[in-house]
Design goal:
Blueprint: H1 8-14, E1 26-35, H2 40-49, E2 55-62, E3 66-73, H3 76-85, E4 89-99, H4 107-116, E5 122-128, E6 136-141, H5 144-153
Antiparallel strand pairs: 1-3, 1-4, 2-3, 4-6, 5-6
């Protein structure tokens, strides 16, 4: 069978072009695994705060053997470097950050209802500590891209990483 090579012009036409002015609707979350030792959480927080990677959302779950710290920081690339430099075991995932709507007296119900229409499960949620506009939530959901599309269609405001910068 003969291999077919397209001319250079045709190959460049099929390459996706970056979309100017578009920011992904997901933010980076780090899940850090800490030993249950006095002062270990302070070491984690210090690593971020002393290096201008402000923690903008945090949730802490303790178990008998370890603590899971989920956090979103203002500079995820720097956060990743800091976690590695300080020897913290961690995983990364994409989560959504959504502003609580002011148009209703039941903002949590409205977010849950919007996602329920597409049968999207919310695994966990925790508050965003810093948003210049309104109270907001970090959401870990089954299908983040679809969830983001639905929330936007329903009139919710999603927060991107540029909104979290210092």
């Amino acid at each position: 069978m003969e291999e077919i090579t397209l001319p250079p012009k045709a190959q460049t036409q099929t390459q996706p072009q970056p979309v100017v002015g578009f920011e992904p609707t997901q933010v980076k979350q780090f899940t850090v695994f800490l030993e249950n030792r006095v002062g270990r959480l302070q070491q984690l927080v210090r690593a971020f705060e002393e290096n201008a990677a402000r923690i903008v959302a945090i949730a802490i779950e303790e178990s008998a053997e370890a603590t899971l710290v989920r956090l979103v920081c203002s500079k995820p690339d720097l956060g990743r470097v800091l976690l590695k430099e300080h020897g913290f075991a961690f995983a990364e995932s994409d989560v959504l950050a959504v502003e609580l709507p002011e148009r209703t007296t039941q903002p949590l119900i409205s977010i849950c209802s919007a996602l329920l229409t597409a049968e999207i499960n919310i695994h966990y949620a925790y508050p965003l500590l810093l948003n210049p506009r309104v109270p907001s939530l970090v959401l870990n959901v089954d299908e983040p891209t679809l969830a983001a599309q639905i929330l936007i269609r329903k009139g919710f405001t999603l927060i991107g990483e540029s909104d979290l910068k210092n």
